Every structure is written in C-alpha cells, then in structure tokens.
Amino acid sequence: MSLVLSIVGFVIVGLLGLFFYFAYFVRKLGTPTKGARIDKRVRPNEALVVIDVQEDFTRNTGKTAFDPEVRDAALDEINRMISVARSSGHEVVFVRNVFRDWPVIQLMKLVANGIGTPGREGLKFDRNLEIRDAPVFEKSIGDTFSNPDFESFLARREIGRLTLVGLDACHCVQLTAKGALSRGYDVEIREPATLTATPAKWTSLKQDLTKAGAAIA
C-alpha cells in the first residue's frame, strides 16, 4: 500500500512540476520586458516597426484565420506606411517571431498546428510585404525588446519614437508597445495597419495602452 501511495505521490509531483514548467514559459510569452529609460533629448529620430507579418500568421487557415479582405487591407496599409516612412527618411525595421522554447514549440504543435515553430516555410514574411534590405530582428516571445540587438539598433540610430504595425495587436504589438513605454519611448500604434485574431480583447487593451501613454491612430 505504501508503495502505491509513493508512486501516486511521485506522479502527482511530476505532473505539477510539468504544469508549472509549461506555465512559466506561457507567462514569459505574454510578459513585456523592462529596461533602462532612454534620454529622449538625444533620440530625435523615428522608426516604423513592422511586427510578425509572416505567412504562418497572415495566411493561417485554422480557426484563427484572418478574413482575406481584412488581411489584405491591413497589408496594403502597412506597405503604404513603409513607403511614407522611407520617403520621410525614417527607419523601417521588421520583426520576425520564431518560438524557440521547447515547451512553447510543443504547445504550438498541439494547439495551433505548429505555426511559428522552427523549420516552417511559413516563417517567411508575407509575400506582399515590401521589405527590401531593411533590418530584421528575431524574437521568440511577445515583446520585441526581448532581443537586445533591437534595442542596440534603436540606440545607434538615436531613435526615440516608434510607430508599431503588424500583428497580433492583442499580443506582440501591445507587448512591444508596453516594453517601449516602460523605457520612455514615444509610441504610436496605427490601428488600420494591425491585425488581431481576438478583436473582442482589443477595445480594453487599447484603453490600457492609451492610459499608459501610447497614441492609437
């Protein structure tokens, strides 16, 4: 009897450990980073940040697939903004998400057909995106500031104002906005150039971002 109880106890402890292991990485995905505040007096420049406009997400055919008409309208607006930013002499950077943590990869394979995991053709940027030779930064969680190369690039180019577009507005876009706001950047999110698979959440998130200092246009 005591052996049975020991085995049951071992299994319960193992399952709890596994649960908290997965929970840690899921929480990490959705937590904005924090960093040192910038001095905006020496950051006069602007950048357009295009987030996660990859075919795994833009052309997903699952239950979270975007309406093609809505998607194409957002892509057109993103490309229009890229053109305007370039003609105005502003930096344009692209962000690509690849899930790298093993628990997250397994989770994505289990619930989302593996989108965003290493080795997939869909990790490429959307076929209609005007990338050219712009800088590209990879991240594996929601907030783009999790990649220190991104923050270093902004410092070198003396950038203090970010305009964010792309997807998902309720995840990586808003998390990057919070990461930027906590560091003292001016942040604007261009709504017509974003997509979200959970539009019902966007209204309250938008209010939170506005209170935190972001501009929503």
From TrEMBL:
Domain of life: Bacteria
Keywords: Hydrolase, Membrane, Transmembrane, Transmembrane helix
Protein name as it appears in the record: Cysteine hydrolase
One Pfam family of this chain: Isochorismatase
Organism for this UniProt entry: Roseibium porphyridii
Lineage: Bacteria, Pseudomonadati, Pseudomonadota, Alphaproteobacteria, Hyphomicrobiales
GO molecular function terms attached to this record: hydrolase activity
Isochorismatase-like domain boundaries: 47-215
Signal sequence interval, chain numbering: none
InterPro entries with a match to the protein in the record: Isochorismatase-like_dom, Isochorismatase-like_hydrls, Isochorismatase-like_sf
Transmembrane annotation, as ranges: 6-26
